[in-house]
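Reviewers of the previous submission asked for a worked example of the structure-prediction workflow described in the proposal, so we include one complete record here. The input consisted solely of the amino acid sequence. No template or homolog information was supplied to the procedure at any stage.
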Amino acid sequence: MTEHKVWVQAVLAGSGAALVMALLALLQQWQQLWLVAPFGATAVILFALPGSPLGKAKNVIAGHFLAALIGLTFVHGFGLTVWSLSMAVGLAIGVMVLLKITHPPAGATTLLIMLTAPDWWFLLNPVLTGSVLMLLVAHYYHKSHRKGHQHLLKRRAAAARTKVAD
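From that input alone, the workflow returned the following structure tokens.
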């Protein structure tokens, strides 16, 4: 990959992640619980590694949801202890691998829940709604980038054909 392509990829990944974080932060001002730390890591996967299997919709949504469900079950069922925290994170990772929905930032979702003990609504917001919103933004962001990139490729091809014809 040329240095120019690396710079373009870096700028696009950073701007996409900034866009989705800004949207979540604006929603956070309107209603609490839109912006949680694990979403920062999800943004890295969705925008810097868009082809990664770890960034598939089922991995992002089901991974965060399952991890949150396990975290909430453990923190409300057993409280916060060294053992409940370690078992919850370990179980979340193991079940994600077993169900083929591995999403590394979801491990942080379990950890966050164990440390903060939110109520059960946390599953809906921010986990489910935030995951879906991030995926939608990433999908349309990459789709618009591909359209713009295809347009540039067509222009370059037309220019090359013109030079050959001359």
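DSSP finds six helices and no strands in the chain. We consider this example representative of the routine output the project will generate in years two and three.
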